[in-house]
Specification:
The structure holds 2 protein chains of 2 kinds. Chain A is mainly alpha-helical. Chain A contains 9 helices and no strands. Classes of the chains: A mainly alpha, B mainly alpha.
């Protein structure tokens, strides 16, 4: 097999090295997309797509190993830790580009821009309240943006604990589903209960919130029910 | 645990344990105003009470949702069945007792002139309620606290 030209090798290494920082950028875009989608986590919607790309970028080197099981396809997988530049880099330009991108995402976007965007969504929530609409979605987006660094670190930890055999994307999505079903949804039941009481006072329909509160508490069971139905 | 999850828990706790108990007073005030106008005030009155028992409501839903194993495919149905049982066997008998008491009072024409819905009494009662809203909120809190003690058996 002919040797890959150094330029392309360096370019691919550079892209792999900045992938985890690009995942941070994808998380930021996921939060912003949630507002554009009207708070709906729809399949194919902006939030879902950007979250998927965040996961994909975090596990990219490991995920590519799935193609190494096919001997006809030669897939280059770097052997350095994701997010760190390879020791073989001698080009100061590549190192500067890598550090520049990492600093831009970590210090500029996540540490400074995301809190300002969160503050904007807080104002948006207050204005929604003034207009008679629910401020909940704006507040949830503000929370998501304010805690972007922690969410990024959490996802990176999950990515590190993956099997590293090419099935990492599936592993990550399974872990995120488990986390949603077992941690986030029961908290959602608390918010739904508050909604039940507020709707009761305002003489609005209660049953959708009562049924969803119970559903939030029984997600795993509903998943098993779905499996049992087929 | 990511900070987003902690933020979500704190938001829920703040809404349920700080904001809604505070809004309870507002709901009672709205009930007094509705009562003075002769409109239905039950939603505000019961809503004010519910504002003080958010945690209890959530525990109730959790009790419904833990009637079987977490991986039991029938859990949602069992939870709904428990909800229906609770409404039909606990709430409706209390409602029935109230209706019987009201029916007897109406048949016997007990205290018609002193009934809260009679013109002058209604306005005096509204004035009394308006001046003692804080006390009524404390009374509701007392009922909730003692109700919790009775349920927990302490």
């Amino acid at each position: 097999m002919p040797r890959m030209p150094d330029f392309f090798q360096d370019l691919i290494n550079f892209l792999f090295a900045v992938a985890p920082y690009a995942a941070g950028l994808a998380l930021l875009l996921a939060g912003m997309s949630l507002h554009r989608d009207g708070g709906h986590v729809a399949a194919g919607g902006g939030f879902t797509r950007w979250m998927f790309w965040a996961v994909m970028l975090l596990v990219l080197p490991s995920a590519l190993r799935i193609f190494q099981t096919l001997p006809e396809i030669g897939v280059y997988v770097p052997n350095f830790g994701s997010g760190t530049p390879p020791a073989s880099w001698t080009s100061n330009l590549l190192k500067a580009l890598h550090n520049g991108f990492a600093t831009f995402v970590k210090d500029y976007l996540i540490a400074h821009f995301a809190p300002v965007a969160a503050a904007y969504f807080l104002i948006n929530g207050i204005l929604n309240l003034a207009g008679g609409r629910s401020p909940l979605i704006s507040i949830l987006i503000a929370l998501f943006l304010l805690t972007l660094a922690s969410t990024h670190a959490f996802l990176a930890t999950l990515a590190d604990s993956g099997p590293k055999d090419g099935w990492d994307v599936i592993y990550m999505l399974e872990q995120i589903w488990n986390y949603l079903a077992s941690v986030i949804m029961p908290i959602g039941a608390g918010l739904a209960t508050i909604g039940v009481i507020l709707n009761f006072i305002q003489q609005k329909p209660l049953m959708p919130l009562v049924l969803s509160a119970i559903a939030f508490l029984t997600v795993s069971s509903l998943w098993n029910l779905l499996n049992a139905l087929i | 645990v990511p900070d987003f999850t902690l933020g979500l828990i704190h938001l829920t706790n703040w809404l349920g344990n700080v904001i809604l108990p505070t809004l309870c007073g507002l709901a009672f005030a709205a009930a007094a105003v509705q009562f003075s106008k002769g409109h239905g005030f039950g939603h505000y009155l019961y809503g004010g009470m519910l504002c003080l028992v958010v945690s209890g409501m959530l525990r109730l839903f959790e009790t419904f949702a833990s009637a079987s194993g977490w991986n039991d495919p029938d859990l949602y149905w069992i939870a709904l069945r428990t909800l229906v049982n609770w409404v039909c066997n606990v709430i409706m008998p209390v409602y029935a007792a109230l209706q019987v008491a009201l029916g007897v009072a109406t048949v016997a024409d007990v205290g018609y002139r002193y009934s809260p819905t009679y013109g002058p009494v209604k306005h005096f009662l509204t004035a009394l309620v308006s001046l003692s809203l804080s006390g009524l909120v404390r009374l509701a809190e007392f009922f909730v606290t003692n109700g919790t003690a009775v349920v927990s058996g302490s």
